[in-house]
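[stage:ingest] chain + small molecule (manganese (II) ion)
[stage:ingest] validated
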Amino acid sequence: MTLNKYRQKRNFHLTSEPADTTKKKSSHHTLHFVVQKHAASHLHYDFRLEMNGVLKSWAVPKGPSLDPTIKRLAVQVEDHPLEYGEFEGIIPPGQYGQGTVMLWDEGNWIAEKTSHSTKGALTFTLKGKKLKGLWKLIQMKSNPKNWLLIKIHDQYARSANEYEITQELTSVKSGQTLEEITIFHQQQNK
Ligand code: MN
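[stage:predict] done
[stage:export] tokens:
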């Protein structure tokens, strides 16, 4: 029932986003994560972790930072079907989230057990093409929809003064930039 909200928000006759979940979770496969760069009314990065057969999802307005001193707001949004992790293209005008979606990063993730594991805090390792190493998500008490996405110090951490991962502008699926994806899919739909 967790995908009801996702389905209610979309007209699948009009958008090419996936409607159903035919992928089944299995006990032995590794868990997938994706980050989709989404040029909606406000550009943001959708951070999605596979959990219990769906993609738990957060919209990160500024995108992830590799700098452990930087906390990035991550607003939890509706669960998405696992198929959504392959989606790249255009959400048409008038549809929820209209704009271009890029598959900006993908890979596997592993939950890490910490000595002080608590509800509302998740420590995990990302094995993506762009995002790697240890990260945490911390739920804010003031508003449970708001979380903070933070890099944990490790070999993959970088100071924001020298490098920001959001400088990486191309898709891990097509190698295209947002502009190129937009043009490519507009031509496909003609
Ligand atoms: Mn989005």
